[in-house]
Amino acid sequence: MTNATLTGFKVSKALFENNIKSNKKIELGFGYSYNVKYSNQNTCIGELTAKITDKTAPDEFKITVTATGVFRFKEGTAKEVLHVETYNDMFPYMRAFISTLTSNSGIPPIIIPFIDISKKEIYRFEMGKNGQMPSADDFVNPFDKQ
Description:
Layout: E1 4-18, E2 28-38, E3 43-54, E4 61-73, H1 79-104
Antiparallel strand pairs: 1-4, 2-3, 3-4
């Protein structure tokens, strides 16, 4: 059963550098980061960043893509559950974007590997003014129409 519904998705940043000389083999390294911001209106925003580099020459080949997803979720759902579900919902869009970006640039498509974050511990840092948790009223949903 799904606790969150993706209501909007956009790529906010895409950087691609390919200065690899022809016929050079590269070894790709992958890194991801994912954060979720919650509101008091059963809405949250997930931000997923994927970084891909050549392990031996990261200045010659690198891709960084950041995507944002807006979700509505069922009241009372644990943040840890939402964190995993929203990541799982966004990841296929990120994978498809990177595959399309690379194939349209004249290189074989890169299919980024999935990481099952439900198997990892999730560390959450709550930060705010003077050690206070940020107010849910400070949350701005960029996809809401004013």
